[in-house]
Amino acid sequence: MPLSRSSSPARRLIVPLLLGAALFLSACASKDTVSRSGIYDPHEEANRGTHEFNKSVDRLLLSPAANGYGTIFPRPVRTGFSNFADHLSLPNDVINHTLQGDIDAAAGTTIRFIVNTVFGLAGFVDTATLFDIPREDTDFGETLYVWGAEEGPYVELPFFGPSTQRDSVGLITDLILNPFIVVFRDPTRYIGAAAYVVDAMGNRYDYDATIDSILYESADSYAQARILYLQNRRYQLGIAAEDVYLDSDFDPYEDPYDDF
Predict the structure, then answer these.
(1) How far apart are CA 94 and CA 137, in angstroms?
(2) Which pick of 27, 43, 71, 233 has the fewest CB atoms within 10 Å?
(3) Secondary structure letter of residue 154 according to DSSP
(4) Which residues contact 225 (CB under 8 A, 6 or more apart)?
(5) Which range, of 41-55, 190-204, 239-253, averages the lowest pLDDT?
(6) Which of these, 138, 127, 130, 129, lies nearest to 89 by C-alpha position?
(7) Are 33 and 40 in contact (CB under 8 A)?
């Protein structure tokens, strides 16, 4: 029987090589590089260029597509697609919980995946929540944090938006480790990507006013998106503000050039 592409020797080498690269790249950042404001952004000029590119993509593509999507499909249908996209991410969560040493969370996430697969129409209905089986979201960026990797410089990724060096490595690793990419063959392997795009359109439609206020109504949309991402991400990881010297008085709506 011929081997699938996912079982080739090259494919089997991806995971250990990628994990090694993740540890190496994340270890390059030092905690001393974080400024008193809690922000380390040595590549700001390049990041701002990417930010403007992302704004153009949002304005010309994502926002119009999201408006059309939200207009055509009622909320129950959009919720079903969102549940399905969330469901497809659960195998990655199991992997990351296991790598973090959180066996209880890995077991709970596995049970959640089985329940929603069997009783939730392959994940379109969140039956597990009705059974009090909570969603314990995680990713490889958090795994790297648990392993002791530093946050590193702030990064704005094309299409994906705000991130950090550690979370960028985590994102790439999660994409590679996704079972729908590694295990399944065409066209099944593209289900996860399609679900992600549909879910992104749903989120863009549901949070239209908030996203517009950040991207198009603030004095400095780049600075606002950056601080909001860092604050939210550090909160998710359980990092106290005082541990990274976050400026609690920062106002994302304040004109950064008002004093000049």
Answers:
(1) 10
(2) 71
(3) E
(4) 51, 156, 161, 162, 214, 215
(5) 239-253
(6) 138
(7) yes
Q: Please provide the size of the chain in residues.
A: 260
Q: What is the DSSP letter of 134?
A: -
Q: Could you identify the residue written with the tokens 């299409």?
A: 159
Mean pLDDT confidence for 145-150: 95
The model's confidence at residue 183, banded by pLDDT at 50, 70 and 90, is low
CA–CA dist 171, 139 (Å, integer): 8
Rounded-to-5 percentages of helix, strand, coil across the chain: 65, 5, 30
Radius of gyration of the chain (CA): 20
Question: In the structure encoding, which two tokens stand for residue 70, read together?
Answer: 């939200």
Q: Give me the residue label for tokens 């550690």.
A: 166
Residue 123 token pair: 């994940």
Average pLDDT on 188-212 reads 90
Per-residue DSSP letter, 148: T
Give the separation between CA 225 and CA 51, rounded to whole angstroms: 9
* Cα(4)–Cα(24) distance, integer angstroms: 30
- Residue in the block written with tokens 């499909």: 73
